[in-house]
Amino acid sequence: MQELKLSSWLPTTNKEVKIRGWDELDVILFSGDAYVDHPSFGPAVIGRILESYGLRVAIVPQPNVNDNLQDFVKLGAPKLFFGVTGGCMDPMVSNYNANKKRRDKDAYTPNGDIGFRPDYATTVYSKILKEKWPHVPILLGGIEASLRRVTHYDYWSDTLMPTILESSKADMLVYGMGEQPLREVVRLMQKGVPFSSITTIKQTAVLLDAEAKIPKNINWEDVEIASHEVCLKDKKKFASNFKIIEQESNKLAARRIFQKVGGKTLMINPPYPTMTEDDIDASFDLPYTRLPHPKYNKRGPIPAFEMIKFSINIHRGCFGGCSFCTISAHQGKFIASRSQGSVLREVDKVANMPDFKGYLSDIGGPSANMYKMKGKVQEICDRCVAPSCISPVICSNLDTSHKPLTKLYQAVDSHPKVKKSFIGSGIRHDMLVPEFNKNADPKELDDYTEEVMTKHVSGRLKVAPEHTSDPVLKLMRKPSFSYFHKFKERFDKINIKKGLKLQLIPYFISNHPACEAEDMANLAAETKDMGFQLEQVQGFTPTPMTVATVIYYSGYHPYTLKKVKTPKTRKEKDEQHRFFFWYKDENKTWIKNTLNKLGRQDLLDVLLPAKTEKWRKNKPSGEAKHTFDDAVPFNKRKNKVKYRGKKKRR
């Protein structure tokens, strides 16, 4: 591997700027993360993209906001603009858990140390820069800005906040993946167009003064949503906004969105088309060192980097549209896949790293098995407004062939220095079930599943059914849990056929909108009946720009405007979560009392049977996992009335 010099990284100090022989900078980036020069870290991608346009770019990672603010002036003023991002995660998610308790580790900081990223980092950085350099344009990007581009609910302050452009005082916001809009911003500025006049670039948002004239674009249709002030007074209006926002975010020919905020007007321009293969290859093929900046060498490892150090991202976007997930809101619903050649070039770089031992930790993306998937007839996709391509059913126009992905795996494994490549990203198990993926070739689905299980799993295969309740799953935009049963049957069959000893690890969520205590009891009983003792579980955390968060705050589903109940109190949340851990002694008395109050003796008999049961945790072999009532599946038992009392709320 070529020896790296300090100048191999984007400069972070005046000394590093001088090493490059620069006396002026075009763009200075501020980030809430430590600087890792790797294509999985957004600030590095943006820096390298700007550099590829011939700009002189520097980055100030995790500037100190608690001293004399020297970090905000040390590099002077850039010629074009400041770029500001809170980092690869929303800072509030980085700093706090679902119970609003401060985390004791920050994965994007050396040694996992906390205290280097302020709450609402994008706003904090931007306001400081605007005070220090009032005449220099500020452009926001990254997931915090992207998901807070319009009136949004902030869980941590329990308030409805306006667009982040208002609170940050920034001049422009780029939402989603920034390569395409940035290219146009830079092109216009290099032609001498004032930043204040750049208002019609796709995938950007600006806040117009009351007296400003609305820019015209004859190719765009416009739509106005309820103002921020109306949303503050009317939760139903706030909820109704989201349907428009989500649909326009996912459309290939979207409308321009307007929203009044105080005496100003927020203007959100339509997104760019999905990146082409050449576009996304160009982004990943930039000269990243793939390493943290040397300034961190004595501070300890950066956990987020260590996790993806030997991984390869093969695509962006997700067409799942899950109600609790922000991926499609930021990366888009349509899949942008890299070419096999680009992936293999990155594999070669990783394989030649000095400490590579032959094992790739992940060949994946937001969902591991969506590579190269797209609409069969593009014109149908062009007209589509559905937030998900696979809920409630898989779209008949969606090509879900796993052949390109299987071929890619085989090409990666043929590299002489690769001993094994793992799939660490979550796999959409439902797409591997012929009963759900009815237009796919069942043999192809089995071939892919077998390929993954025999060659790309280290003991455990992780999937995310998320819940067992049909009403909750419907709201989540996830398929019926019956398809997880079907997938497990296929998983067990391959396990036996190949003599493997793999475990299937399902992920579940508690406290989701529409979920009640009885649903969680059902979940615990049904998964126990399948032989699972759950470990991979989490409580629902409301984050901006999701259907579930809108419901959590407003109480209304944005698409139907019907009321939906959501657990909100700490007591409700803790009690739902306790059902996950029915096997812990400290929970047994509480579970017994709760199920007796609910009149669910059937569930109690499964979770805490009076007679000592011969039950064993789920094993990878094909032998019986338990002996109680083994011949009858839990969801088929005659003495069980599942979802009792729910129909009237559906």
From TrEMBL:
Family matches, as PROSITE patterns: MTTASE_RADICAL (PS01278), RADICAL_SAM (PS51918)
Keywords: 4Fe-4S, Iron, Iron-sulfur, Metal-binding, S-adenosyl-L-methionine
Cofactor comment text: Binds 1 [4Fe-4S] cluster. The cluster is coordinated with 3 cysteines and an exchangeable S-adenosyl-L-methionine.
Listed cofactors: [4Fe-4S] cluster
Pfam family for this entry, one: Radical_SAM_N
Molecular functions (GO terms): 4 iron, 4 sulfur cluster binding; catalytic activity; iron ion binding
Cited SMART domains: Elp3
Domain Radical SAM core: 304-584
Entries under InterPro entries matching the protein: Elp3/MiaA/NifB-like_rSAM (IPR006638), Methylthiotransferase_CS (IPR020612), rSAM (IPR007197), rSAM_horseshoe (IPR023404), rSAM_sf (IPR058240), UPF0313 (IPR022946), UPF0313_C (IPR024560), UPF0313_N (IPR013704)
Residues binding [4Fe-4S] cluster, per UniProt: C318, C322, C325
Stated family: Belongs to the UPF0313 family.
Protein name, per record: YgiQ family radical SAM protein
Lineage: Bacteria, Pseudomonadati, Bacteroidota, Flavobacteriia, Flavobacteriales
